[in-house]
Amino acid sequence: xxxxxxxxxxxxxxxxxxxxxxxxxxxxxxxxxxxxxxxxxxxxxxxxxxxxxxxxxxxxxxxxxxxxxxxxxxxxxxxxxxxxxxxxxxxxxxxxxxxxxxxxxxxxxxxxxxxxxxxxxxxxxxxxxxxxxxxxxxxxxxxxxxxxxxxxxxxxxxxxxxxxxxxxxxxxxxxxxxxxxxxxxxxxxxxxxxxxxxxxxxxxxxxxxxxxxxxxxxxxxxxxxxxxxxxxxxxxxxxxxxxxxxxxxxxxxxxxxxxxxxxxxxxxxxxxxxxxxxxxxxxxxxxxxxxxxxxxxxxxxxxxxxxxxxxxxxxxxxxxxxxxxxxxxxxxxxxxxxxxxxxxxxxxxxxxxxxxxxxxxxxxxxxxxxxxxxxxxxxxxxxxxxxxxxxxxxxxxxxxxxxxxxxxxxxxxxxxxxxxxxxxx
Length: 425
Hints:
36% of the residues lie in helices and 26% in strands. The protein is built from 13 helices and 22 strands. The chain is globular.
């Protein structure tokens, strides 16, 4: 049966909006939907809030959005404010430093907030457990999804056994291997990097060993680039792992120690708090919306972590979807709204941002760090120095990397009639 927005009756929201995926994007979507006054069911495979700590950066535009669901005070209480970040070269040292405080007249958050993503998940889960509009179903797997004439039917398996759940709308925020995306038959176009990325956390203060090091550092090197950043719990170092190395070889404690000693010699040896090895992709779903089903976050787009925008753009997806569904819900009590136009606008806006900002910028960052041609490397250094030295160019650059530019261009949940859109290239 084909869902028809012209005849469907989900504007009454007698059925809940179902969010599949309880990571930071799914939790944000559920919280934002609840703020909009909509009933929500969140379905998460893990038996408890996800402990994954991979992403840790929250940019200005994202903090502004999260402020609307009243969570930023808690985030700041546990997070680390970082107003500056550096581009470095492994041989030449500091190349350029950018200061987000150039944007102090545009945003109340002119910095990056470093906070491991599982803390946002924990904070939101605690809140949602006490919200009568929200039902959390942890330990539950999506086994099937059908679009119906007036919404969707989800087939689930969890502590209650096999169950069905009727939804007005569905937000698939269930990660790169999204069961929602698979059920909808949506292609995940793009490529996978041949090398894997390793993230290693240590309690050693790298700034004491390298005094001019910033709290966030992109370090170019033709043999082995680095990404070094401070979080409240630890220092993290990210590096590429060659294809030839097995997971066991890449994760061997002796190799991790050797890698960290090359970052900064430390006679006492490096205690490793955590280590992860993962594949990295640049992929975008061919559609972010099928009928009443929306894709968000890693279910819709995944990218290199070099830029810290994947999690942020996923949260923007969640907030955009919630605002549109909230507007649809309010139209049921006296207003009017073009449901199809709203959902199509979500598809166009969020896919355009994923392609033109997230994919383009993270690919450019990754290429810049691993450039092997010395002439190009030197030109990259000159370009970054020139941008940092010019306040107007630096301001424009920081506005883009903090995602303020994309939000200023499209807004979040902007009504379709107010948007001027082109297809994402």
